[in-house]
Amino acid sequence: MPPPSQPTGEPRPRAMVIDRAWRDLGPGLQALSGPGGAPLTRTVKLIVLPLVVRPALCPELAVDFLGPAEAARLDALIRESGRRLVATAQWFTLLKKARRALGVVAGNPQDLYFQRCFELATQHGAPSAGADAVARAVVEDVADAGGGRTVEALKNHLADAVRHARLDRELTAAWESRRTVPAADVAEAVARAAEVLGVCGAPGQAVSSPAYTSMVEAEHGGLFGRALWAHASGVWGGADQPAHLGLTVRQVPACPEVGRSASTATLPAPLDRTLFERLFLVLQSSARREELPTLPELVGREVGRSCAPLGLHDESLRVTVVLGGRLAVGLDPLGTGEGPQGRTAAHRAVNSRWRREASVLRARRMTVSPRPDPDGGALDALAQDLRTPWAAYMRRLWVRLHGRDVPGAPLADLASAWAVLDGVARSVMMDHRARVRSALRTLSAPPVTETATAVAATKPRSA
Predict the structure, then answer these.
(1) From the CB of residue 440, how many other CB atoms can be counted at a distance below 10 Å?
(2) Which of 104, 112, 402, 409 is nearest to 279 (CA)?
(3) Which of 402, 442, 406, 429 is nearest to 328 (CA)?
(4) pLDDT tens-digit map of 375-391
(5) Sign of dihedral through CA atoms 264, 250, 420, 222?
(6) Is the pLDDT of residue 44 over 80?
(7) Which single residue of 9, 71, 321, 356 could bond 66 by disulfide (Cβ 3.0 to 4.6 Å)?
(8) What angle do CA 46, 47, 48 make, to 5 degrees?
(9) Distance between CA 135 and CA 97 in Å, rounded?
(10) Where do the domains of the chain lie?
(11) Using an 8 Å Cβ cutoff, are 13 and 64 in contact?
(12) How far apart are CA 424 and CA 408, in angstroms?
């Protein structure tokens, strides 16, 4: 069901405009859409915004809330690209088929092929005669562009016993050479972070901030990371939140290991990951692996990075972790009013957006109900996520920053840092929305009979 319309003349969220225009395009977009018919997050990020909307050329469409004229312009741009988007979906389906036939498993297909499929749709229109050969060539080209920077190549590289032992010695030496600092040394960093967040998320926010620059120059991010090595506590003004905010499950991080395998379903907390697990996500999610260092250099740099404060080399990224932590402990989607005092403009912007979520409102009503959880705990788990949103936020933030640190992409100013901080908040919110909808669909589904269960049990499971 499309989102409800808003009164004429009022600003509309850009995401809502995109969602409605997308749904109105009709059938043929399933490969680029989620189960509910909305465009996938990666569809918006990799196709709609950069290739259809092109906010760099239309800066009036680069903001989160659009006036009536801007909303109409955005709607028109998406509708005008309808045929091309349907062709893009068809090419993506074809490339995935070619990928399976070639046995390619490295990387996320959406990250690797979405933009290439839009190019194919622009150049050729919908797939026609000879499209299979074109799709195969594109898949091979993308695979070759990685230059051996694949998960399988990483596994083979670390399988060498001599190399594995050498890396283990290097990790131990780097870990033992660390320098810790007292937890008291981070009080100024946390206070300065609140000052920086005070100018974020508000209308006319500052593009740069002397406080942000001074945090980077004073290496407040590095100090914070070294304090975590010394078992810091009470950093955020209360004893109920650990200083590391879920970046590790230990009181203090341990020396990282080399590792030999990884799975996205069982990845540990960021600072508890092995060398293999840290690079696994980078190689899987990078759409431009050819721009990464060569595999031996990539592994060598990760040894030092994994033993650096907060597991990051660049100081601007470390400072962004501190900013993210200060923002995370003030996230309050349920509107309980609990948590640290002195909420900033950034907190107000993120929390107000989250509290408007229909899925959050529904989950709040259901999870505070005195009735037992009818599905045995799923709603309780969702409620817990809303009570401690900082855990998912910090985990996702670290992954985002690590993905910038590996290719060397610092955050030069406050505007860049806030774009990442706010983007992670939106990502966590949308992920929670999807999980709430999935739980509600499960609750509303008819019960499965014993016969149906027995039949389903006999069917082979897909990989």
Answers:
(1) 18
(2) 402
(3) 429
(4) 446 666 777 777 778 88
(5) negative
(6) yes
(7) 71
(8) 115
(9) 9
(10) 1-145, 178-255+307-444
(11) yes
(12) 19
Token pair, residue 15, equals 């995401």
Euclidean distance between CA atoms 139 and 141, whole angstroms: 5
Distance CA 37, CA 13 (A): 18
Tokens 């014993």 belong to residue: 450
H/E element, 13: strand 12-13
pLDDT in tens, 271-319: 999 999 999 988 887 666 667 888 888 999 999 999 999 999 999 999 9
- Report d(CA 377, CA 374) in Å as an integer: 8
- How many CB atoms sit inside 10 A of residue 137's CB? 11
Alpha helices by DSSP H, listed for 185-308, are 187-197, 210-217, 220-229, 275-285, 295-306
How many whole angstroms separate alpha carbon 267 and alpha carbon 389? Answer: 19
- From residue 434, alpha-carbon distances to 2, 340, 369, 378, 439 in Å are 16, 28, 21, 13, 9
Classify 66 as helix, strand or coil. Answer: strand
Amino acid at 254: A
What are the two backbone dihedrals, phi and then psi, of residue 360, each rounded to the nearest 5 degrees?
A: -70, -45
Contact 220, 188 (CB under 8 A): yes
